[in-house]
Design brief:
It is built from three helices and eight strands; from the N terminus they run H-E-E-H-E-E-E-E-E-H-E. By secondary structure, the protein is α+β, with helices and mostly antiparallel strands. It has an eight-stranded antiparallel β-sheet.
Length: 187
């Protein structure tokens, strides 16, 4: 009986802590067509996951536009300075040039591939310049592997990501009247 009770307690603790850890690494991205469930890879890119969660849970991604969307490639968003459509600083022409007030992050490159549904940090030519902007891949993009920090993956709702308004293919994916993030929060 005693051994049964110990095993039961261990089992319950495993379920509780595994569920708590799993929920801690799940985010919900609300788009106009529906919710997108995202798993964050805290063990692969801890600094980037921490940054995304902080900005998201502080509401800084709410109303931020998808300023660069290239069909067959990716949708880029996350410019919390110039891309927030409800901010006085909103400037669609400058969206993609800003970030948060927090310092840039050091690269956390990994062997995780850029495949359909991958979330990865946008940056300048400096590998250590990621700040708040990120992109979601529409299709595999192996040329980005080990050159950009992968921090998450869409696990439900990719059909909503696929509905994001595409940009002008002759203008590097710039979008007029872009779709936006309604909200982005931890589950």
């Amino acid at each position: 009986m005693n051994r049964y009770l110990v095993n039961l307690i261990i089992f319950i603790n495993l379920i509780f802590f595994t569920n708590t850890y799993a929920k801690d690494n799940i985010m919900i991205l609300k788009l106009k067509s529906g919710d997108v469930k995202i798993e964050l890879f805290k063990d692969v890119a801890p600094m980037h996951v921490e940054r995304i969660k902080k900005l998201a849970d502080d509401g800084q991604y709410d109303n931020v536009v998808f300023h660069r969307v290239i069909d067959g490639f990716m949708a880029q968003t996350g410019d919390v300075k110039f891309g927030n459509s409800s901010s006085n600083d909103f400037d669609l022409r400058r969206a993609g040039m800003g970030g948060s007030d927090l310092p840039d992050l050091k690269a956390e490159f990994s062997d995780l591939p850029h495949e359909k549904g991958t979330l990865s940090m946008a940056r300048s030519s400096d590998p250590n310049s990621a700040n708040s902007q990120f992109f979601i891949c529409f299709e595999p993009a192996p040329f980005l592997d080990r050159n950009y920090t992968v921090f998450g993956k869409v696990i439900e709702g990719m059909e909503h990501v696929d509905k994001i308004k595409r940009g002008d293919s002759n203008n590097n994916g710039a979008v007029t009247d872009p779709d936006k993030i309604i909200s982005f929060k931890s589950q």
